[in-house]
Write a structure and sequence with these properties.
The chain is α/β, with parallel strands linked by helices. Helices cover 34% and strands 14% of the residues. It has 17 helices and 14 strands. Helix 1 links the parallel strand 1 and strand 2.
Length: 465
C-alpha cells in the first residue's frame, strides 16, 4: 500500500502563481518578465505540500504582481493569465489578488487552493467566491520563494469550501522554516496546535466576541444587506453561547484611515524585498529583471504587458515618491505608526480592553487593520445579495455588486490565535451552512471519469451532463 503521508495524501491542490515550484510550471506573478526564470528549489509551501502527499495540480491566475502594479487595472487580470471572472454572476469581479485560487476552489477544480495576502488578497476573493479563507499570522507560514510585496505583511494561507478542509491545509503548510526568520516567532518553540481538532461545534460557547462597529461605518444601499446578515449572525452566535460585546471600537481607526503609513511600508518593502527575497535567488533570469526599476522598464516596453492602458502607478510611487527601502529611518517611523494603529489602537487594544477571545466583522471591512500588525483573520460565507440588488460595475466592466453575489463574515484574533479562530469559524459555519444555499450560475461539466480512461463510460457521463 505504501506510506500514508497525511490526510492530504493524493489530494489535488492548486497554488497561486507567485508560489515557486522547481518543476516545469512557471512562477511569474502573471508577468512576462519572469517567463523562463528558474528557482533553485521548491518554495517551502510547495515542499510542504509534496511532503504531505498532496498533488500540486497547477498554478492559478492572480491580479498581476498581487495587485501591486497599477492604479487602473482590474482584479483577476494579469498579462500572462488574462482576465479571471467569478462564477456567481456573469462577468463577476473575482476580487483579488488570489483571484484564480478563489474561483477554482469555489468551483471544486481542486479540493482547495493556496493564496497569499498582504492586505485582503485571501480574504477578499474568499468573500465574493463563497469560500472559507484563512489569512494566517505573518510568520505562521513560510514565504521562502514566494514572490513578495512586504516581508512585514505577506502571508500564505488556504482557500477552501469548508472550515475543516482549510484547517487540514493549514496544518500541512504551517510551521518553522530556517529560510524565513519570521517563522521563528511561532509560539511553543514552533510546535503547532491541532487545527483540525479545533473544529468543534460547541466552540462558540463561553466565548467573548467583540464588534468594532466603527470599522463597519454607515449603512448604504450596498452595505445594507451585508449589515443585516451580519447582525443576524451576532444573534445566532449569542444563541450558541457566545457573549457579544458591541462597540468594541478601534480607537485609532480614523487616524489609520487618514495616514499614509501603510502605503509607505508597502512601497519601501517592495523596493527592498523583490530583489533581496526573490529575484536575487533565481537560478536563471532570462530577462535580467533584477530590481523594481528593471521590472518597470520591461513592463513599460513589452507590448503584452498592456502598458500604458494599465499603468505602473504603484511602482512609480515606490520608486519616485517614496524612493527608499525598508532599512531607511523613514520606513521605521511609518512601520511604528502601523503597529500603533493595529495594536493598541486596533485589534490588540480592543481584545485587551474588553477581555475578548475574538472580534467579528463583515469580511468587506476586515482586512486592513489586521494586515498592518500581521494578525490572523478567517472568513466564512455569510450570505449573498438579494434579488432586488442594483448591479454595480467597475471601470473595466466587471460586476462588483449584483443579485446572488456572495459575501462573508470574518473572525479576527491576536497573533497566532488561529486555533481559536478555526473553532469559532467552524461552529458558525456548521450552524448556518450558507455555502450550500448560494450557488454559482456556472458549474464545471467535466469530471475525472470523463478524461481518465475515456471509452463509453466517459461518453455516457458527458451525455448525461
Amino acid at each position: 500500500m505504501g506510506d500514508f503521508r497525511s490526510p492530504l495524501h493524493g489530494i489535488p491542490i492548486l497554488i497561486k502563481n507567485n508560489i515557486a515550484t522547481d518543476d516545469k510550471m512557471t512562477n511569474t506573478a502573471g508577468s512576462y518578465a519572469l517567463i523562463g526564470a528558474k528557482v533553485p528549489e521548491d518554495s517551502t509551501m510547495a515542499a510542504k505540500l509534496r511532503k504531505a502527499g498532496a498533488i500540486i495540480l497547477g498554478k492559478t491566475n492572480l491580479s498581476q504582481w498581487a495587485n501591486f502594479r497599477s492604479s487602473n487595472s482590474s482584479n483577476g487580470w494579469s498579462a500572462y493569465g488574462g482576465q479571471t471572472f467569478g462564477a456567481y454572476v456573469p462577468n463577476q469581479d473575482p476580487s483579488g489578488s488570489s483571484s484564480g485560487s478563489g474561483v477554482s476552489s469555489s468551483l471544486g477544480l481542486a479540493l482547495a487552493a493556496l493564496g497569499t495576502e498582504t492586505s485582503g488578497s485571501i480574504l477578499s476573493p474568499s468573500n465574493v467566491n463563497n469560500l472559507v479563507g484563512i489569512k494566517p499570522s505573518v510568520g505562521l507560514t513560510s514565504r521562502y520563494l514566494v514572490i513578495p510585496i512586504s516581508e512585514h505583511q505577506d502571508t500564505v494561507g488556504p482557500m477552501a469550501r469548508t472550515v475543516k478542509d482549510a484547517a487540514y491545509l493549514l496544518q500541512a503548510i504551517a510551521g518553522p522554516d530556517p529560510n524565513d526568520n519570521y517563522t521563528s516567532a511561532i509560539p511553543n518553540a514552533g510546535t503547532l496546535p491541532d487545527y483540525v481538532s479545533a473544529c468543534n461545534f460547541s466552540a462558540l460557547a463561553g466565548k467573548r466576541i467583540g464588534v468594532p462597529r466603527n470599522v463597519i461605518g454607515a449603512t448604504t444601499a450596498t452595505s445594507a444587506p451585508i449589515i443585516a446578515a451580519f447582525n443576524a449572525a451576532l444573534t445566532l452566535m449569542s444563541a450558541a453561547g457566545a457573549t457579544i460585546i458591541d462597540n468594541t471600537n478601534f480607537t485609532q481607526y480614523a487616524a489609520f484611515q487618514r495616514s499614509n503609513a501603510s502605503s509607505i511600508v508597502l512601497d519601501a518593502d517592495f523596493v527592498s524585498d523583490l530583489p533581496n527575497l526573490y529575484l536575487s535567488k533565481l537560478a536563471s533570469n532570462p530577462n535580467n529583471v533584477t530590481d523594481l526599476a528593471s521590472l518597470r522598464a520591461f513592463t513599460q516596453s513589452f507590448g503584452p504587458e498592456d502598458f500604458p492602458d494599465r499603468d505602473t502607478a504603484t511602482w512609480d510611487e515606490s520608486l519616485s515618491l517614496t524612493g527608499f527601502g525598508n532599512t531607511d529611518p523613514r520606513f521605521t517611523a511609518a512601520y511604528a505608526q502601523n503597529l500603533a494603529f493595529g495594536g493598541p489602537g486596533g485589534v490588540t487594544g480592543a481584545l485587551e480592553t474588553y477581555n475578548l477571545d475574538a472580534l467579528v466583522l463583515p469580511t468587506r471591512n476586515s482586512p486592513g487593520v489586521p494586515a498592518v500588525i500581521g494578525s490572523p483573520v478567517i472568513t466564512v460565507p455569510l450570505g449573498a445579495y438579494p434579488a432586488n440588488t442594483t448591479t454595480v460595475r467597475t471601470s473595466r466592466g466587471l460586476v462588483s455588486v449584483a443579485p446572488n453575489l456572495p459575501f462573508g463574515i470574518s473572525f479576527l484574533g491576536e497573533r497566532f490565535s488561529e486555533e481559536v479562530l478555526v473553532g469559532l469559524a467552524y461552529a458558525f459555519e456548521q450552524r448556518t451552512l450558507v455555502r450550500g444555499r448560494v450557488g454559482p450560475y456556472l458549474r464545471p461539466r467535466t469530471e475525472l471519469g470523463d478524461v481518465v480512461g475515456g471509452g463509453a463510460k466517459g461518453r455516457r457521463r458527458e451525455a448525461k451532463l
